[in-house]
Amino acid sequence: MSIELSIRDQLGFVRLDRPEALNALSFAILDQLGAIIDQIEAGIEAGQVRGVIFTGAGNKAFCAGADITELIGRSTLQEHAGAGIGQAVFSRIAALPVPTVSVIHGYAFGGGLELALACNFRIGTAKAKMGLPEVKLGLIPGYGGTQRLPRLVGEGRALEIIMSGRTIDASEAERIGLLNSLVDDGDPTALGVQFLGPMLKQGLPALEFAKQAVIRGMQTTLEEGLRIERDLSTLAYQTADAKEGMQAFLGKRPAQFKDQ
């Protein structure tokens, strides 16, 4: 397979393993990624996975984007279906109830950046370079880039990035909020573990409620978002973790969350 999944220490590690092609996304790889998400969802249900880290093999790229050789000579129906496949897989990543992070070491272009955008967080090393260059092929992003990027960096910046197709370096990406964290260098897997470490100490119900409050609220009005927050906050109070957290605070001791 061109994607590897390993699970250890309550983390799922997903590595794109096609370094000879800069970890480019073929439709077969998207199918493999969908199967891996099945395994991750099962691991979450079983209490074995509390966070997911996405990395790319090799020193040159996280993911250089779609496999262009597969995009030539298709029918209109095939083109439409192809965009639907990528969007569906990335939307499943975005919907995971645990924190997800992509560690960008090298190139993240086109579909590769769209994969990173589907994660909750993005870490970049100094070597990271990213962009949505589809307009240079006479195309536009089709795996969610035109929707997720403006929600992250704002409409004006997103339009400029998408319509120019230019490359963004790591320092700019951090400045505009495309990257959550910029580090000089390091092993991508270790960087992901370090970043998610503080979140893994929290109870999963609270993390999921917080994630849903933000994501759902961003898709509606402030008034409706406040209603969503109120409902989810009320649900959080009903959990055993909330009772434990408040008792631990009053007792001046670390909370022992059980994801309940």
TrEMBL record:
BP GO annotations: fatty acid beta-oxidation
InterPro entries linked to this entry: ClpP/crotonase-like_dom_sf, Enoyl-CoA_hydra/iso, Enoyl-CoA_hydra_C
Coiled coil spans: none
Pfam short name (any one): ECH_1
Molecular function via GO: hydro-lyase activity
Keywords, comma-separated and alphabetical: Lyase
Xref: SUPFAM superfamilies: ClpP/crotonase (SSF52096)
Domain of life according to the entry: Bacteria
PANTHER family: ENOYL-COA HYDRATASE, MITOCHONDRIAL (PTHR11941:SF54), ENOYL-COA HYDRATASE-RELATED (PTHR11941)
Family under the similarity heading: Belongs to the enoyl-CoA hydratase/isomerase family.
Protein name (database record): Short chain enoyl-CoA hydratase
